[in-house]
Amino acid sequence: MSVTAPRGFRAAGVVAGLKDSGTRDLALVVNDGPSRAAAGVFTRNRVKAAPVLWTEQVVKGGRLRAVVLNSGGANACTGSDGFQDTHATAEKVAEILADSAGEIAVCSTGLIGERLPMDRLLPGVETAGAELSRGDGGLAAADAIRTTDTVAKIAFRQGEGGYMIGGMAKGAGMLAPSLATMLCVITTDADLDAAALDRALRAATGVTLDRLDADGCMSTNDTVLLMASGASGATPDEESFTALLTEVAADLTRQLLVDAEGASKAITIEVVGAASVDDAVTVGRSIARNNLLKCAVHGEDPNWGRVLSAVGTTDAVFEPDHLNVAINGVWVCRNGAVGDDRDKVDMRPRDVTITVDLSAGPHSATVWTTDLTADYVHENSAYST
After folding, report:
1. Residue 285 CB-half CA count within 13 A
2. Can you name the residues that pair with 70 across neighbouring β-strands?
3. 3-class secondary structure, 85
4. What is the pTM of this model?
5. How many Cβ atoms from other residues are within 10 Å of residue 339's Cβ?
6. Under a CB-based contact definition with an 8 Å cutoff, are residues 94 and 104 in contact?
7. H or E stretch including 252?
8. Any idea which residues carry the catalytic annotation?
């Protein structure tokens, strides 16, 4: 049920004609309350799409009645006309719901630099409004936000006290911090205020979606929204809610990882023994973005030298002759030199784990990435056509 698993939410996913494929391309998620508390986190790319600029302002109010999302066009780098298109989309949703456009979020994903066909998008919003439901609407909405995703991505969990958290996400390319996902909507029927939702969302995404770095490319459209209806009447403590939200976000992160464009390996990078969490994340991201290493993993070569090379480009605290590296559990590098026989490493499974021990402190972090394949190059060279 995805975003409609929690009570108080309806959703729809429809064909508006934005995609040449004729598949679903417009989604609408509506919060029927009684609460409308909301929070959001967005791309840190300085080039922001019009829907991001709009939704950032809307979320500052701490309330959302609905979010409308389209695939088939990013509405990024479209100037003032593109921003007016976003405003018109929000106004159309507000008209359907007899509500205020100031509480309507807008998200878009697709090709950058092209105006959206508003003569198709706005009628599509009307169609979505007429098809809102709690039953099939959640899965249809998750399907409608896909671009190069091969499958819809959904997750949900039930918390103590009877409340639920549900989510949907899309993303297969341009997967890098910040937020990785391009688009993600998470709903809950817990009764929490906007400030609590904001703290929980930032904590959850900080160790999940923000640690996915498949290709080092940061989107102009990254948006993660958290909406609370309060319909369960349950008010969980913030710590337990954040833990459950993190589970949902981690589930979605894993689904994004295994569906990344062209990938044949899902790589987990564990950095331990760091002087600080920031050092651990910095090292993890450097390894995740090392194309030589990503090619080696694709070729099933346990080339630990490329790991050390990536670690050495960072400003993290470590001594080169104290570094240790394990690949799929085999410590192929010990104290900055040759360790166990690399022939013991089995690189055939889809999941590959690289563990780096900096031997500099008690902190750790995990970053996820993928291998670099010919399929990835082909898919992205042909994307605009």
Report:
1. 21
2. 26, 108
3. helix
4. 0.93
5. 16
6. yes
7. helix 238-258
8. 181
